[in-house]
Amino acid sequence: MSYSARRRRMCVFSARVSCRDSSGSLFMAVLSWSCTGEANSMNFEDLVTSLLPKLKRLSFKYHAYSRSCDEEDLLSEMILFLWKKWRQGEWEDKTESYIVQACYFHMRNRLRGMEERCQLVNLDEPVDEDGTRVSEFISDNSQSMADHSEGNALYETIMNNGFSEKEKEVVRYLCEEYTVREIGEKLHISHAMVVKYKKNISKKVSKRYNALLV
User: Fold this and answer.
1) Residue 3 confidence class, pLDDT cut points 50, 70, 90
2) What is the DSSP letter of 88?
3) CA proximity to 16, closest of 26, 3, 4, 29
């Protein structure tokens, strides 16, 4: 069958996906579509079948980083993203590795957006007419996991080890898994400057902690 003939063939698929709406309630989204194939010669069901194991591993690994999404939510988010881009023909001639990476970055950006919308609670803020504070609901001997974390102590030591304010900002974004280009956009500097900051940070850290930053 010629390429043009494959482009003209009819394809019908139905993808049943679980996802969350803006209110946080779970609903089932059923995507049913009939298309002529003019916009896309790639079969969506074959694409999902091929990528599903990798997408499941990603959702399993990263759902622990979110307070509002579970593993199924993240998988659904990536499949919906996959479908939308497939409809636009963006996966034509792309490798599986490229597509999986695109799904990963989409999921990570969604998680980041959700966390940024979370409301922070002031522990000293009164919560009732008697002036009871949030902190009073927490037992006196309670300690956060971070207080017991060796990694947290190490992080604080590094941050107070002669870093400039800009270097501290770079470290924070690196710990949050931002890319060099994303950090540059956040700090309004070039990605080359971010690379320079990373090198300076590595030099300072290596004096006391070998190979801490890779």
Assistant:
1) very low
2) T
3) 29
Per-residue pLDDT at 178: 82
Token pair in block for residue 43: 């079969």
Q: Can you tell me whether residue 177 is helix, strand or coil?
A: coil
The predicted pLDDT at position 129 comes to 57
Provide the β-strand partners of residue 18: 28
Q: Domain residue spans in the chain?
A: 7-116, 161-206
As a three-state string, the secondary structure of 114-168 is HHHCCCCCCCCCECCCCCCEHHHHCCCCCCCHHHHCHHHHHHHHHHCCCCCHHHH
Residue with the two structure tokens 């270097």? 167
31-79 pLDDT, tens digit per residue, is: 433 343 444 556 888 888 888 988 888 888 876 666 666 778 888 888 8
Cβ neighbours for 146, distance < 8 A, ≥ 6 positions apart: 152
C-alpha distance across the termini of the chain, in Å: 50
More confident residue, 99 or 117: 99
- List b or e across 17-50, with b for residues whose CB sees 16 or more CB atoms inside 10 angstroms: bebbeeeeeeeeeeeeeeeeeeebbebbeebbee
Q: CA geometry: angle at 109 spanning 158 and 154, to 5°? A: 15
Q: How much is the pTM?
A: 0.39
3-state secondary structure 27-43: EEEEEEEEECCCCCCCC
